[in-house]
Amino acid sequence: MKVLIVYAHPEPLSFNAALKETAVAALEGQGHAVRVNDLHAMGFNPVTTAQDFPVRAFPDRLVIPREQSAAHAAGTTAPDIAAEHAKLAWADAVLFQFPLWMYGLPAILKGWFDRVFSEGFVNDPPKGKFFDRGGMAGKRAMLSLTAGGKPGGFAPNGRHGPVDVMLWPIHNALRFQGFDVLPPFVAYDVVRSDDDARRVQLADFRGRMGGLFTDPVLPFHNLDEYDVTGGLKPGVVPRNTIQRN
Q: Of 137, 166, 174, 236, which is most buried, counting CB atoms within 10 Å of its CB?
């Protein structure tokens, strides 16, 4: 199988880098083909602007989704975005490796989501191409992240709040593109951990890589379970933690 690792950390000696290298070694050891997208090394531009659309389909007003869709249809998608689209088309699974900063994605990775998960290619809501019908349907995605706090801080009664709630917008964004989303791997307390604790976390992560294509995925509802307002139809029992809250 083919795995794309989208890696977002500026320090080559970081624990994120160690997790990335662990994933590469484990996946290649299983016989998978692996490509690494080092966003900082690439100098990836995370900012969406009008420069993304040198040939404007709608010059009256910049509406990002409609320009993305028009560019995809016309074959005028910006070259750096088109290159990322090709990598996504190649991959059977995508692993996102990043530090949790300010309770979310680092800016460079959030910008990658904004620019690369573009309408027309990975999703097209007006045509019903999103969630379980999205362009990435049949592919898997997984978040691997580091956090400075201890596990208890990310529990339901913790000072940071439950990690599944914190990651819901990211997981749902991946599902919006059609991905089957695996439970995340979270390495906690990485700033203060000693080498022994880090070795344990790397070993645990190596084990998770063994199930990248076989482990159960997170539960999401299909589009046909929602009504015209976007809410679950009467009688549909919520299957995930967030919609149950």
A: 174
Nearest CA-CA partner of 19 in 213, 204, 193: 204
The per-residue pLDDT for 197 is 83
Q: Where are the alpha helices (DSSP H) in 64-178?
A: 64-74, 79-90, 107-116, 163-176
Query: What is the reported pLDDT for 153?
Result: 86
**Among residues 6, 15, 84, which one has the least CA distance to residue 38?**
6
Note whether 131 and 222 are within 8 A (CB). Answer: yes
109 by Cβ neighbours in 10 Å (0-12 / 13-18 / 19+) ranks as buried
Report yes or no: 19 and 97 within 8 Å, Cβ to Cβ: yes
CA-based R_g, the chain, Å: 19
On whether the CB atoms of residues 239 and 221 are closer than 8 A, the answer is: yes
pLDDT less than 50: residues of the chain? 245
Cα–Cα distance measured from residue 170 to residue 177, given in angstroms and rounded to the nearest whole number: 11
Domains belonging to the chain, first-starting first, are: 2-244 (3.40.50.360)
Give the count of beta carbons closer than 10 Å to the beta carbon of residue 60. 6
* Three-state DSSP class for residue 171: helix
Span between the terminal Cα atoms of the chain, in Å: 37
CB 135 within 8 A of CB 123: yes
pTM of the model as a whole = 0.95
Q: Which two tokens stand for residue 210?
A: 């063994």
